[in-house]
Amino acid sequence: MINSPSDPFSPVTSYEQAMGKMRFILPLLMLITTGLSLWGRSWDRQFFLWINTSIPRALPDSLLPMWDTTMIALTYLGDTHVMLWMILLISLPWWMAVDRKTPDKLSLYLVVFAIVLVLAILASQGLKEIVGTLRPAGVLPVESLRILGKTLNYRSFPSGHTVTAFAGMCTLLPVIPASWRWGALTLAAGTGFSRIGVGAHWPIDVAAGAFLGIVAGMMGWRIAFWLQQKRHAENTFWKKFNHGLAMLGLFIMAANVAYTPFYEFEHRSIRLGLIGLCLILALFLGYYQRGRSE
């Protein structure tokens, strides 16, 4: 049974345990986003300036390079290329463990991945085109800001990197140890924080991006469970549709790996370092999963 509660690799059980925390986080993010958009635009600007300029100015000169590198590294966790590598490497031990038990779980995860990716892209890019707000560099004097990377002026709301970070982490949460889950969410929050630190987004963009990323992740799992039920109902169309989504997820992951040598060269050492860190985490997770499967 793919969804047996006694199975340590049960997707339904893992999903309910991992996503239960989100029921408290989502209303808070919605409240922050709504409050800043209706009454707190001045607070939004002040909070941005505090993170982007006040904190770096308060640091000793010897710590500024460390601050900048941390902001850039956290930002790259929300880069789609790096996040796809993270999902692949960290979920790989889980794949290897469940493949020995039932291939249905591997197919389910690939379907989740494909759906979450599509939902995250549609939510992020769609709202950017519809809302069309200016970024901090398009509103405030550029010389007064601490810009790390390219100077961006348009398509501010929501933060696409934050959407990607939270959607990716929600894809991973049910397949990683419970003790890792708060750490994963903290990294996603760090990505959102870094988007303010590098001067690319307002706090409201980050709050909305976190909300949308979590919703995309939760919907991806829910839709995948629903499709799995349809698939087992002996319906040929749903079987083919489910199989097509799984193949799409596998193709995207393979294409991302193949594209790595041709990806942008800026901060390449940081990106490769993050991918290497994910590989190390995957090795630790492999030992953990092997213990669970024995």
UniProtKB/TrEMBL annotation:
It comes from Candidatus Muproteobacteria bacterium RBG_16_65_34. Pfam families: PAP2. This is Phosphatidic acid phosphatase type 2/haloperoxidase domain-containing protein. The chain crosses the membrane at residues 24-40, 71-94, 106-124, 160-180, 200-224, 245-263, 269-288. Keywords: Membrane, Transmembrane, Transmembrane helix. The keyword ATP-binding does not apply. Residues 108-221 form the Phosphatidic acid phosphatase type 2/haloperoxidase domain. It comes from the Bacteria.
